Amino acid sequence: MKAFSGATPPQQLFTNCQSHQCLTNNDHHVHLRTIPGEAESDITHLQGGLVDQKPYFNISGQNAWQTLIAYDACIRLCLYAWSRGCAEAPEFLRDECLILRSAFGLHKFLLQPRDTYVKEGRSVEINEETCTRTTKKVVGKIRVEVKKVRIIPRRKLKVTYSQRGALYMQSGVEYLRQVSALVKTGVSSLKQFSNSEDMLTCLFQLKSFTEEADAESSSTIYLQPGTGDYHVFFTESLGDSLVMEVQDANRITQGRAMVQLSSLTDNPNDRIRWWPIYHDDHECVGKVQLFVGSTVSTDENNPVKSVPVVETLAYDLVLESAMRSHNFHHRNLHIHGPWKWLLAEFSDYYGVSDTYTKLRYLSYVTNVATPTKDCLELVYELLVPVIKAKSERSLSRQEKSLLLDCETQVERLLARVFENYKSLDEGSPSGLTDLFGPMKEFAAPALAPAVQVFILLHDILSQEAQTLLRNYLQTAATKRCRRHMVETDEFMSTNTENLLLDHMAISTAYLKMKKLCTSISNEIQADIKIHNQHILPSSIDLSNISAAIYSTELCKRLRAFLAFWPPSSPLPHVTELLMATADFERDLEFWNIRPVHGGVDSRNIFHNYIMVWIQDKQLCLLDLCKAEKVPWSGLTTNHSTSPFADDMYEKIKDTLNEYEVVINRWPQYSLVLENAVSNIERAILKALERQYNDILTPLKDSIPKKLGIHVQKFTRRQSIALYSAPNEQLGTFMNTLKRILDVLHCRVEDILKSWASYLPIVEDKKSALGEQMNGVTVLLRTKYKNYMQAIVEKFVSNMQSNRSARLKRILEETKEADGEVEVRERMQVLSSQIMDCVSNLHEVFSSRISVAICRGFWDRMGQVVLKFLESRKENRVWYNGSYYALGVLDDTFASQMQRLQGNALQDKDIEPPRSIVEARSILCRDNINTAEQSTYLYY
């Protein structure tokens, strides 16, 4: 007792405290004001509604009497505890119960010592904010006990004589053997029937509760007649009724009765009454004797001062006082110390159930709850025993109503947690961060207790609970995605026509879209890390749930953006966005995210644009091949070629390099590009032939034409005029054709071949890539070969036009006695013309082309000798002349080529061609050197 020094004895203190209960008729009541909640998701509003909200309590005119009774109950409890040696009680009794008077707000109404008036002044007013109680007020309570039940039996009609006769005839055979058993069974059934009439059960329930949509079967109270069991009902309205139903042992309803609360009186002699029992057809089937003790106020809004106070209401007032003393608010939710002891002792001493204390405390917590770890852990702690009591069906009517309100508030709190699970901030007053910064890669501390509370309220194995939680998480992903897309909203408006002409604005727009793809990818990666912490239930795949929303929304935004800002070609900023989109899709696959309908399909998004790019580029390059746009044929490059070919192939190469990014992601487009390139190369060749048509026309007479599978050479009337020596334009054309075949076309083909390895193998079939390029290669080689052969044929035709230069005539006129000198003299004119032709070729064509044409000319002249010998194999008279003629041809071609080409001439270039070797093999008596014939191809 030393801790309470200077205190008066408990009895005297109790008397003094009783004297403080003298109040005037201006009764007051304690209000608990609800701190504004956070109904909207706007973070600024959430924070603003919770900053510096401190609940205070003040006496109003409605519940002053209940407040005073609660105050008295606390004093008596503390006195009782102090008398038993409790260490916490003196804290509340010190200084004439100052703590209690302050907590209950009774300063202005209780008599104060004279010293207090001098120090504080009687005119001082306390400006305190009030909080409104959110729960329903209890009007009164009813104690019900069943004394007796009388039910009039409703017997069935007896069977008729015909039915009885039929029954006797049917059982006559069995009667003699089983008569004793039948008698025994009949007696037993009669006893059971008589006993069942006495086994009646009365089911009670308030009518207001039965009308609620969410009423549970556990709200029904079962009472046996005559057992002395009773139940206390808490009513909220005088217009309510008590519904009773009588059932037998087989749960068959025998009748119902209804007690109107307005018909009850406070007369003790009128508490035991008989009430009629009616059947469904409104037939009176019995009566029940009930003991009904009621404590009901006559006016809910203005209760009289002398009405007894319900224990739960008194506990509410004590709890509010404790909260007032602890400065209860959203960051200070716990009640500890002596007040925690007082609440526990009060509920135990005055019979307030533990479930009710938890629910009432929970109701105040949920009114100011924030999505923080401390708050959610407290909610979970308070809910566990309540949910357990609910499962055991031990909740009262009042507790169920209170639990329903609390569950609604808790569901709202859980919705805020799960719908903002990446924006939770323990340091923020609202529990949510007010800045949209980088996402957190780990779960917020409040997420784990929120999951515990959710599982406590829902069966997580049920489809409904899983769907609800998924909807919360989908909403969270939608909100996060929307915040990311804010920066790109400006590009979705219709007022972007002026910006389309600004290259810098276009690049900025594509850069922001690329950033959006990266941000969304980071969001999904953060969700994967949160999911791997195994905080959420195993049935909830956070990464797939959020990725489905992110991917779908990102796909919609990309399609809309590209529709507003269509890419014209694979420019750098376009390819960067393409790469970001493809990387996003690749990451989803790498992270084992399930594909979702309407999600990001990068190839499908960009496919139409890529096809348009390729088609536009093809048309643009084909347009450059038109006659009016091909530069003048007189211009040449350092390689003595047409600059048109080099420019066109350079454009083709640049185009292929632009599509390198596209091909790396989707190699299938290499086939489309190859087809476009082949069309452009054919157009380039046609443009060159059209440009040099004047000089190529004479040669086309000597080019074979393909008719079906046969190759025929049209015979035209030979022109009397000789074929003029090739000029520089023909050299430029042939040099260009050779450069295309050996250099330019190969560069393009090498790029396309490098892409072939990217193509997937489908059913072990090789890719078709390269077929178009092979066709172009064959076309170029054919053109090159035909034009060289045509030039050679024109030279041969010039030789045939001069009788003195005809080789066949020279061979025919050679006699057996003629020697080498005579043959050289006859071939002097022919050798002179050959030397002139070789010199002309060297001046016009490049080194390799002139060598190739010279060797072709050399071979063609050798064919004349070979055919001459083959037609006269049996006559060796012309063998010597042919032998000398071959020597003259070899010396002429070889010496002239060496003189002109110099060191650039290779050894294989001066080897005799095939026709010369074959002709010599005929002239030789042994064929030892036949295998040494040249296989060098000159075109």
**DSSP strand (E) fraction?**
5-15%
Class derived from helix and strand content: alpha+beta
Largest sheet, described in full?
4 strands, antiparallel
Question: What integer is the average pLDDT?
Answer: 78
Strand arrangement within the widest β-sheet reads 4-1-8-7
Net shape: rod-shaped
The helix content is: 40-55%
Spans of at least 5 consecutive residues whose pLDDT stays below 50 are 1-62, 117-137, 157-168, 179-197, 298-308, 706-720, 925-937
The radius of gyration over CA amounts to: 55 Å
The beta-strand count equals 10
Descriptive overview:
- By secondary structure, the protein is α+β, with helices and mostly antiparallel strands.
- It folds into 5 domains: 179 residues, no CATH class; 130 residues, Immunoglobulin-like; 143 residues; 148 residues, no CATH class; 131 residues.
- It is built from 30 helices and 10 strands.
- The strands form 3 sheets. It has a 4-stranded antiparallel beta sheet with strand order 4-1-8-7, with no helix packed on it. The protein has a 4-stranded antiparallel beta sheet with strand order 3-2-5-6.
- Helix 8 packs antiparallel against helix 9, helix 27 runs antiparallel to helix 28 and helix 28 runs parallel beside helix 30.
- It is rod-shaped, with a radius of gyration of 55 Å.
- The N terminus and C terminus are likely disordered.
